[in-house]
């Protein structure tokens, strides 16, 4: 069985690229960010302050996140409830960025993520897949893009959904999340030493996909 790890900052296009590659290679796609977002949704619903680590730790044993697949599409369940349609808001994303820094939160999901990699050929994306979750992955990719390009992509995505968006605020949030992810004490966002760097700022989705598939062909 093969495993591919794709890490990178928020808005770099990891999910879009990973889904496309997984379909092309007939791999199972695992979106770890969605798991952290599910936990974040729980914290929001229970009005837990993201700065209150003690309260976060106390809540973790009551949270069960699981993964199902319907027609090849990952479904994230929070204590049995399908929350796929509830975890893509800016509020949930910001909460996930803050709370994923806690050791207990990451430990809650780590075994699930590693167990998934034992069952099939998988492509997993996140912030610390190549450095922490799957350090022995067959291929590690660090996918990034400039903050401006990432903000433009997010702005366009929101506008197309009919959501009012402020470009400057989006870019500011991205820069803040980058800093939070890179400076956290537990499993910070960073490029693994043996990861291939792919900067998608001036690349199309197809070009990024082809580049990563070509890298995988080298390690097969």
Automatic annotation (TrEMBL):
Residue span(s) of domain Cytidylate kinase: 4-217
Keyword line: ATP-binding, Cytoplasm, Kinase, Nucleotide-binding, Transferase
Domain of life: Bacteria
Reaction catalysis annotation: dCMP + ATP = dCDP + ADP; CMP + ATP = CDP + ADP
GO cellular component terms, semicolon-separated: cytosol
Residues that hold ATP according to the record: 8-16
A GO term for molecular function: ATP binding
Subcellular location: Cytoplasm
GO biological process, one term: nucleobase-containing small molecule interconversion
EC number of this enzyme: 2.7.4.25
Top-rank EC class of the record's enzyme: transferase
NCBIfam families (alphabetical): cmk
Family to which this protein belongs: Belongs to the cytidylate kinase family. Type 1 subfamily.
Stated name of the protein: Cytidylate kinase
Organism from which the protein derives: Anaerostipes hadrus
